[in-house]
Amino acid sequence: MDEFVTTARSGVRPASLLKWAFLVGIALYFIVPMAAMARFGFQSVPTALLTPDKLFTGWSVSGLWDAMTDPRMLAGMKTSLLLVLFAILLNLVLLVPLAIVTEVRNPHLRPYLTALTLLPWVIPPIALVVGVAATFRATVPWFLASVFSLVPFYALWAMPFTYRALDAGLQAINARTLYEASRSMGASLWTIIFRVLLPNMRASMVAASCLTAAMVLGEFAFASLLLKNTLPTEMVIYQAKNPRGGLAFAIFIMVLTAVGLGLVVRSLRRRGLNIQTTGI
Amino acid sequence: MATVDMSGIRKTFGASVALEDFSLAIKSGELVCLLGPSGCGKTTALRILAGFERPDAGSVVVEGRDLSNDPPEKRQFGMVFQDYSLFPNMTARQNIDFGLKVQKRPSAERKEIIDRMIAVTALEPHADKFPHQMSGGQKQRVALARAIATSPKVLLLDEPLSALDAKVRETLRDEIRRLQLEIGVTTVFVTHDQHEALAIADRVGVMSAGRLEQLAPPRELYEHPTNAFVASFIGTVNRVQAVGADDGRWRVLGRSVVGSSPSTAGATNIAAVRPEQIAVDSVEGGAGVVESVSFLGPMTRVIIDDESYGRVFADIISADAAGLRPTERVRLRLRDDVQDVVLIGDAA
Amino acid sequence: MRAIFRRENRLGLVVLIPFAAFVGLFLVYPTVVVLLKAVTPHGELGTSALMRALSGTYRTGFIQSILLSGWSAIIGGVIGVLLALVVKSLSRPKWLHPTLDSWSAVASQLGGVGLAFAFIALIGTQGIMTKVFSNMGINLADYGITAVGFWGQVLVYLYFQIPLMFLVMMPAVNGLKTSWREAAAIMGASPARYWRSVGIPLLVPSTLGGMLLLFVNAFTAYATVYVLNPSGALVPLQIRYLLQGNVITGEEDLAYAIVAWVILLLLSSLVLITVMQRRTLRWTSS
User: Tell me, what's the ipTM?
Assistant: First the structure.
């Protein structure tokens, strides 16, 4: 857009300056809260007593360490990791065959499937929890007693982006053509799935798993309202008792999630797979 | 209308040189084609003329005024893009109206011009359609109408037909030329298709690697290419060895002819011989073997593998080629009516 | 639809049925029950619960939620679009575009508990920004920029709204062909003229769709509001209150009714967003 704004001088143009000022402003907006969180979590000087000369004193990771070794937090971490694992498994088990069969043999199913996987988006945790209370809690309370009753619902909310990721991956490798070529060479459906298609879907499966993990590790509403103890709910409880530690841990988790997701997104872009993380 | 004078243009993108000492003088009302393979710099030259790129050196003078520092908005040119570039949120009519509105013409005048443009490009049934409802050919005609509606000083076309089907390409190509002649607007047409260029241009500038190799009317380019690149780029050419005799003439394919430069005894050169300049005689034990015979309608293309001359293409009137078959032995000869040949460099 | 039952599509059915059953059981069944109960308060068909859900404190709740989501959608939307346009127009440095692409994909997922904590550390009563500004003599609470204040909450929401809008708008912004800009220029149009006649009209449908997405995203956010302002008057919190304190019968009906309204809101937003997307697609694929 700027290539043919002809000006006499070849230096920095005012329009560019404005744009960069805007970008810097946005960057500041995103960095400052994180910095505040880090300061609160890792510096033991209370805000009220903070003066410029004390800015570099009292830094330690003791808050983080305390949080990570707290028994309830550990239990929450373990639970959440298990939930992540099961949610991913359930999702992949349900969707991978479906995605493959749709792309390869029954493409006319695709619009129905896309619509179906969009349904969880229309019914978010805060809405579904009421439905669950009205139905499962009343009829099969033993089901909801276990924390793993969260798994099917988490799988549901991971569905929009999981399906899209799998579908994008299949389309990127021209699964239909691969399938037909393999069939014409005499391969059975199972061979094709396990030896041809799945190995090529690794990238999108990893992406879907990472997005699911991020979602599950951050999901608060459903777990909290069903009185379950997952990492996010324990973090809130812990933070009330121990603000410094709570914040230190929160930023630790956020950085971990951000780095993990970031790496996944980058490696996908390099393969040309543009997977939508919004699900819509 | 306007004369265009680009002189001494040099343009580099990073380390690569897109244009090197490029100069082009166009007469008022002329249609000049810039022809060449991808990467030869023809589009860069056009964009510099339009004002979308600034040259590192050189000047652009139109109608005697130096436009080198003017942005595209001020040049009063019209341009047709390869991807049509019609505004998708506007109908054909509104697209054509856009430039006129920018020129602040009164609405009665705008309507009259638009109606005339639509009539002249035969767009009546599509006038109120949106680009996504039109075919490629229709869209390009709208783009053309839009470009000339504002009575531009110069009309620029950047490979306008490349995205179209072959049949549409031919019809549209002739329409563009017809309109251009009618309006008399100075036009620069960039293309990589030599048939387009030869068919409609007043002069064609053949470009290669940032340089203008030859600027001449189509016929002259075809009959008298000045170097090897132009000779092989335009039409098909056979590179045949020419041996110099001591009378200043050259011996080519068994006959003595005048070369584009005089010879000395024993000198060797390469002659650019067109397929239609070659005669093929069925001779037992001849030096050439027929590889293939392709019936092309009025002419038949015969490909011969010759012991001395290598692979040779000959175009023969189909009636004369009736007896030729692959694996037959033949002798090649320069046709009797060829009196001179173009020499394009020294033999290796 | 009949095609599904043909013989060669049996494999498709075999794979589809467990999936459909899963979605049916865990998603459709609870939702349908809620919707049915919403229109049958006290066991009889009627709209009394639905109407009650829109009155009194619940009315305030809806209005507050709409205002909060609306403002964060509009502000976040505008900033997101501007960000997309700025990034598209800057071809240097080369790392800018991919970095922002990755960042937006990640940052739009980082809502929730952690984010709420961060803003407590920033604009809470012990927040560092609160302290810095009070040292300068400005009381942020007066402007509502606290963890529980309206504009403070909008500020928090922007943290995931802006990246989400950027993510959603980048394809649309990329779809603005340079050749349109050039065509406008060669016909004498200034940049402002181009934007007015071509650029902005083309971006409007996707921008509106994006803002609607942002609105929905904010409306259903729970963790952030729970941590920052658990006693606030917002729809998600009211649902919680009704859910956890539904000792009094009749109160459940309210929860169902509120959820019914929320689902209606989400469904209509989805339809509108799809319409907007189709519009943009039609224009930019020509």
Answer: 0.85
